[in-house]
Amino acid sequence: MLAGDPVASKRSLHIESSGQLCIYCGACVGICPLNCIYLDETRITFDEKVCTRCDVCVKACPVGAIEIG
Amino acid sequence: MPDLKTDVLVIGAGPAGSMSAKWAAKHGARVLMLEKRQEIGSPVRCGEGMSKDWLKDVGITPGRWINLEVEGARIYSPSEKVFEINEKHAGNEVGYVVERDEFDKQLAIDAANAGVEVKLKTAAVGILKENGRVVGAKVKEFGQTYEIRAPITIGADGFESQVGRWAGIPTNIAMRDMDTCLQYRMTNVDSDVRYCDFYLGKVAPGGYVWVFPKGDGLANVGIGVQVSQVKSPADARTYLDRWIDHHPGYAKGKKIDMVGGGVSISAPLKQTVADGILLVGDAARMIDPLTGGGIANGCIAGKIAGTVAAEAAHAGDPSSAFLQKYEKGWRARLEEKLYRNWLAKEKLVTLSDETFDKVVDVLSGVTLEKLSVHNILKAVRDKYPEVTKEFEAFL
Q: pTM here?
């Protein structure tokens, strides 16, 4: 489950945290199996190198602020 | 900023953190509690329903944080048959609807009055380790980074907990063990101030829709959806909006606030302590997996955590062997029920709308003295034996 999928990992993850969608609830931070999403009060960032684009955070986000393309 | 020293360092000033801090201070420890936000209790991330039978035990007195007292809960099946649970046998999450920001502030005030030092706008950005033992945290206060050293660190940093992970305590949860939640505060709705309402079935796959009345036409209307059952992004919002659209008493309402978040609905963690550190509350995945309620368990465990942390500091023994007293203490109080409710949840999330309708249909027609999984299943078996077939293990 935790292993990165080399094909999937070529895709890009986008977290919309400028405030238009994100409500800074931390759901993505809590579920990330690799602990690579960080929540500041009004900013969410993630570690590109660690993230495998597994899409768990996409599902956990209640408002659809995370996309994998 | 010079580095600081204390006996017990509590990271996070939610209910579990404040309770831990207060009880550690009451037992004579020097305690420092950190809150990353500028205001304790805000923004609220909660449905604001809680039971009340546990409050006295942990030393919380009713105050102005109580919004209103409800008489019971109503469980709605997918075809909206209703089963009413009164507060006597509901036990768990029904009792008060609260102002969570006021509640959190009151617990922090209680902690401060017991001697706890509180630091706002101060986030833990890492933990300090020596010879494999946690000896405090690296923190950032108003942008300035420094170290706080303490023999005991308590991780009370909520669902998105980092402290446990930094310490090497496995706190990861699977998608089926988490609900993604969204809630609106709505005005001009037809909620009944006597009840907290819960709507089960495909309106909220693997979770439920809740309505907690706040009085004067106000209510918290929210949803939890099991992450493993999410089909497309923002399902929590889609399902909640759909539910509201289909309920005229709510569709006419107006949204004035929105909160979201993750709720763990997992079995208890195998480990909540390590050398120099213990985890408490949502950070320790102590949320009741059936109801999604976490305040009571966080506070109950917090009292034990604070007490044991102070004892460890006095004894000069922060080893995980000493901290087992906390591990055993909270498990004795909470683990059996957490595990039982996790099993029940695992079963519930597999039920079809038809089965939910049958179960609620039976329950609406019988009087159960004590509400337990066992009693419910026995009543259902009398009318729909085919439904209980797969639950034989519980009977």
A: 0.92
